[in-house]
């Protein structure tokens, strides 16, 4: 074709229709309680969007809402009827998808970086972490939190898998909480990584109990950490999202997001180098690496049954404003991934 530009879809995946106007900061599939697949994305353009993902890979835009500032995180309610949206406007809003109404359910004194649903046998609540150096728990019907915990520093990343929560803060702090009965601090650790962390994801053991977490840093490295390792050697770190340039120096990129496969327990990392990689942490091996996109990959996630991998391509400002190209638009891609993430057979 004359004048055809090279495709930005380097892996021949399904492209999501009507993506946000700015980089994607949050990406979450609906939970297994919902029969269909829905995908929600929050963006630096202050929007949150919802699509239905059809069996053939096509996406149908369902709705869009605008927040009072850039969106930093989203999470689904356990029944899949609502989405919580954390924003730089210091609020978390509840988006009721059936009525398409939005209402405020949580507030902080600074931008809200993380929001997660806590679903226990005795209570359900929303956990929010902020740059105001607090972690708060809300039952969402009351304007005041059930509990507020002071953090040593700003909340940078967090994950929840009942009965475990983990929070990563500025200055390389890590705090693990036990959520049984009520949230209590279980253990504090300094990050095993020398540089600032950006992504954290809890993994389960063979009994499907949360047992540890993967932590990704801006220096192209991931740590696999068990909360109570049977052997200290079970904890390890590995390098990723690096490339050796022609001059012989190594280019090192940030790990922007980490997700564990809901069935296989293998994991994906995405980075500022514009690639995603699939890994088997137990065999300590890489399963697959993608081609490099023409922009960074900012966020990723799996759908509830592990058939679909979603990843968002856009600029993450990792090379400063001089590399920002407004002609390059954000994109979200969907990939059929179940077989590619099967663990290595030893």
TrEMBL record:
Each WD repeat, start to end: 17-61, 64-105, 126-148, 255-289
Keyword Cell division: yes
One GO CC term on file: cytoplasm
Localization in the cell: Cytoplasm; Nucleus
Pfam families: WD40
Keywords per UniProt: Cell cycle, Cell division, Cytoplasm, Mitosis, Nucleus, Repeat, Transport, WD repeat
GO BP annotations, alphabetical order: cell division
The keyword Transferase appears for this protein: no
Main location: cytoplasm
Membership in a protein family: Belongs to the WD repeat rae1 family.
PANTHER family according to UniProt: MRNA EXPORT FACTOR AND BUB3
Protein name: mRNA export factor
Organism: Drosophila rhopaloa
Lineage, top ranks: Eukaryota, Metazoa, Ecdysozoa, Arthropoda, Hexapoda
């Amino acid at each position: 074709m004359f004048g055809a530009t090279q495709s930005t879809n380097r892996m021949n995946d399904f492209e999501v229709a009507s993506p946000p106007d700015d980089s994607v900061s949050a990406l979450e599939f609906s939970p297994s309680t919902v029969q269909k697949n829905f995908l929600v994305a929050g963006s630096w353009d202050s929007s949150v969007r919802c699509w239905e993902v059809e069996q053939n890979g096509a996406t149908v835009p369902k709705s869009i809402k605008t927040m009072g500032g850039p969106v930093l995180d989203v999470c689904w309610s356990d029944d899949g009827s609502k989405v919580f949206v954390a924003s730089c406007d210091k609020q978390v809003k509840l988006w009721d998808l059936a009525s398409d109404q939005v209402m405020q359910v949580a507030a902080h004194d600074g931008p809200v970086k993380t929001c997660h649903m806590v679903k226990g046998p005795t209570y359900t609540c929303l956990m929010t972490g902020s740059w105001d150096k607090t972690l708060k728990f809300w039952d969402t019907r009351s304007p005041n939190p059930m509990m507020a915990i002071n953090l040593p520093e700003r909340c940078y990343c967090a994950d929840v898998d009942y009965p475990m929560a983990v929070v990563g803060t500025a200055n390389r702090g890590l705090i693990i909480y036990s959520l049984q009965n009520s949230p209590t601090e279980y253990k504090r650790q300094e990050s095993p990584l020398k540089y600032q962390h950006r992504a954290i994801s809890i993994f389960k053991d063979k009994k499907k109990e949360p047992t540890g977490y993967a932590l990704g840093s801006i220096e192209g490295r991931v740590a696999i950490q068990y909360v109570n390792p049977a052997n200290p050697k079970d904890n390890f770190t590995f390098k990723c999202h690096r490339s050796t340039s022609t001059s012989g120096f190594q280019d090192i990129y940030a790990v922007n997001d980490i997700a564990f496969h809901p069935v296989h327990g293998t994991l994906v990392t995405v980075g500022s180098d514009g690639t995603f990689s699939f890994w088997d942490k137990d065999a300590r091996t890489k399963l697959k690496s993608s081609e490099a996109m023409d922009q960074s990959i900012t966020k990723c996630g799996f759908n509830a049954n592990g058939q679909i991998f979603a990843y968002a391509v856009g600029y993450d400002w990792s090379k400063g404003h001089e590399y920002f190209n407004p002609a390059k638009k954000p994109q979200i891609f969907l990939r059929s991934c179940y077989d590619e993430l099967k663990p290595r057979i030893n």
